[in-house]
Amino acid sequence: MDSTMERAGNFLPRVDDSAASSNAVDRRVVTLTAPASAAAEQYRTLYYRLERMREQRPMKVVALTSAMPGEGKTVTSVNLALAAARANPERRILLVDADLRRGQVAPTLGMRNKQGLAELLAGECDVRDVVRRFNSTRLAVIPAGATPEESTQVLASARMKQFLKAVREGFDEVYVDLPPTLPFADAAILGHQMDGVLMVIRANVTPSKVVKQAVEQLAGAALVGCVLNGAEVNATPYLKNYVKK
């Protein structure tokens, strides 16, 4: 095993502060920008549902994907990871951007996407060079980094397996933002190495047959549920009335 990856477990908990401007955070990160909103409450609900699942089975590494691009998987990943960090400040929480084709975690959080997972897996840097703490939270983040020529090959490498082993040892909860499932093989390759996979679906946009195809492509992965993204509050009369009070 490469020495850099061998030492990863020792370095991971020691993240450095790299504060991002709060104005640079995407407004859809409602767990920060609108923590009292109905949308933020839904992300907290999603997190506690995962917590209940953890009472029944080990689920340290949870990945999020979607059938196609543009369904909101990255925004969901960021909000879920931040909800986890706020709910359990004593736990070590890590968010990994494994979408090496179009990594959006860093820009969504207003962070600089310098070195990241791609450079780490290429052996160009050390883990402590890519792990950053987001703002004043306890959330640690590893951005995607530069897009490699062969993303699928990089994610299927032995280094990636070593990296996942290291973060399992170094953190209590790990959330992984995967590429969309249908356009690429990446999500299917990594999905089998996750303890749980969530499928993000854009309400009134993603056809059911497309979702079915994506689920079939993830066959063998631990698919634990789906997240309906972009649903109107009006679609849930009780929630609509409750929010008005």
Automatic annotation (TrEMBL):
It holds the Pfam family AAA_31. The keyword Transcription does not apply. It comes from Corallococcus caeni. One of its GO terms (molecular function) is kinase activity. This is CpsD/CapB family tyrosine-protein kinase. It comes from the Bacteria. Residues 59-204 form the AAA domain. InterPro entries: AAA_dom (IPR025669), Bact_polysacc_biosynth/exp (IPR050445), P-loop_NTPase (IPR027417), Wzc-like_C (IPR005702). The keyword Kinase applies. Keywords: ATP-binding, Kinase, Nucleotide-binding, Transferase, Tyrosine-protein kinase.
